[in-house]
Amino acid sequence: MGTLGFWRLAQADPDRIAAVDPDGTEHRAGDLLARANRLVHGLRELGLEPGDGICGLVPNGADGLVLYLAALQAGWYYTPVNWHLTGPEIAYIIDDSEARAFFVHERHAAEGMRAAAGSGLPADRVFAFGRVDGARPAAELTEGRPDTAPAGRTAGATMHYTSGTTGRPKGVRRPLNGLDPDDSAELMTFLLSMFGITPGKENVHLVTSPGYHTAVTQFGGTALHMGHTLVYMDRWDAEEMLRLCERYRVTNSHLVPTHFKRLLSLPEETRRAYDLSSLKWMIHAAAPCPVPVKWAMLEWWGDCVYEYYAATEGGGTIATPEGWRKHPGTVGTAWPISELLIVDEDLRPVPTGTPGTVYMKMMGASFEYKGDPAKTEANRLRDFFTVGDIGYLNDEGFLFLCDRKADLIISGGANIYPAEIENELTVHPKVADVAVFGVPDEEWGEQIKAVIEPAPGVEPSPELAAEILSSLEGRLSRMKWPKSVDFIEEMPREPNGKLLKRRLRDPYWEGHDRAI
């Protein structure tokens, strides 16, 4: 221990560019360190102590990074808030996380101030980046404060809220480890080193998704602690990403399959116009990646495309390019510090090749859903936990996912996995995005419905639906074909690529009891 961690690296090399904002503004490591130190001094004067929390409603860029760096060296929990939420939803997170201070960026002023007013937080604890009526400028916390390291530094943590497929989102809270912040950050780098990622300022990490997602914070924060420069994107755009990769000589990033699909739909000459020779570790997760899409990315970018499967709660798998080529469609094998368990409905382990509920555990990691011991326990099996995915292991220990338990369609007593159907439909050139789910059927219990976002310039029609369905001939058994197709202008996805399937499915089930 003792060579990595942002604060150590920034003292050793203060002039290094540590972050680049979406507008191109560059930030030196020494300046970010000074801002984070001043913020700790200012918040301590307000009475914040180790174990307390702060929330930030901020876009990608240096402001959020400073909140993260302050909390992680002062022993606080930092909760980055989803900026797509409404005021009351944000107020719930402020209250539930027991935040002692709330930071709002001017871009999100309207919902942020609605949230502040609806929360139990005193008005003098609400701070603004930029101009926000009714909030104190964040500069009031930092002006005149020393930029030297605060005394009694101790490691903090991020506390992300899960997207909450049912009911309110839950904060995933880990016990603080009491370590020196740089030593704690160095331990975090284990995650990236599993992919073979190396420390050093020659490396550049591209942040492609909003920082309120766990994986985005984990990968971006860890890259920073390894001495990489962070280049932030604001709103993701396929060609803009290629431009940034060439301009900053990006070596690593964290992506989702939706990004791949959009990159691959760029014209061939656009794709060839950029020099991507710097790419080394382009990592994807968060949603199933159709096999043909992954093959196309490996063909284009070469063996730098890595995949993993994990959850905010801890534990997971990793698929190297070599491993995936040998076992196409896999999400990989268990991390060295993780274990997998596949069980049936009675929680008994199933044989190799048999689908069941996927449970994972990570050595030395414990967590709770904040304020919800019942939910914490419900998802556990001894010291394993599940997020409700169904999958199987092959005889070499490679995990293949079938679907989420909640999305399983039971039609005429047969289990049907929508992800398998989505993967086949999404490769059709006239399909931009697709969701498959079960809708009520008097005879069969459920029937298969596909909702399709047509590719740009393609007009929805019954003929288009028939053409897309007929492409399944010989690739998918008839029992898995959607019985009906609806078209939608834009699929409801979170910016991290997760599909909000409930939003599509719920209207069809109004007035019906769910069969499962």
Automatic annotation (TrEMBL):
Q: Which Pfam families match?
A: AMP-binding, AMP-binding_C
Entry-linked InterPro entries: AMP-bd_C, AMP-bd_C_sf, AMP-binding_CS, AMP-dep_synth/lig_dom, ANL_N_sf
Q: Which UniProt keywords are given for this protein, alphabetically ordered?
A: Ligase
Instruction: Provide a GO biological process annotation.
Output: fatty acid metabolic process
At the top level, the lineage of the source is: Bacteria
Q: Where is this region: Disordered?
A: 139-176
Q: Which GO terms describe its molecular function?
A: medium-chain fatty acid-CoA ligase activity
Q: Where is the AMP-dependent synthetase/ligase domain?
A: 7-361
Tell me where in this chain the AMP-binding enzyme C-terminal domain is found: 420-498
Family of the protein in this entry: Belongs to the ATP-dependent AMP-binding enzyme family.
Q: What is this protein called?
A: Acyl-CoA synthetase
- Organism, by scientific name, is Planomonospora sphaerica
